[in-house]
């Protein structure tokens, strides 16, 4: 059963950077794009652990959700240095709200991207999501947040590899991912993005 999404809203007051529209991001010159990306990455990568920093990260992740639904923006973001930082946040963030929103951003990027570079570490993201689902298998709320991202990544890998003669090594999918996915489906997990 798919649960309807709640609209995403970000708080401009907690974000310490401009929030450009997807159209503006698409039309940016490389220098401006790199500056924007650098600000996003440094805000996400911040190690501050106070409430304000957490709110700021969550707001940034909500903002990324709103622009990640545009194919060109999603393609630029997934093929940038942002994707490894998202994986790192998924692995290390102490706050599960942040991890859930990171998973949502990853899922949206995978769903909407039209290009996937050979060096994008999607296999690492698949392995990490699989581990997190396995470790938290009894927590249905977390599974509901993590499973859509895993499914979108698996579909992205399958659709991209279908168009190529040889699968890329960085896109290897561990069998555990399919096992976890099938186990969740057998148990009838209700899916939604957090």
From TrEMBL:
SUPFAM superfamilies associated with the record: ARM repeat (SSF48371)
Record-given protein name: ULK4 kinase
One function term, GO molecular function aspect: kinase activity
Keywords tagged on the record: Kinase, Transferase
Species annotation: Urocolius indicus
Lineage: Eukaryota, Metazoa, Chordata, Craniata, Vertebrata
PANTHER family: SER/THR PROTEIN KINASE ULK4, SERINE_THREONINE-PROTEIN KINASE ULK4
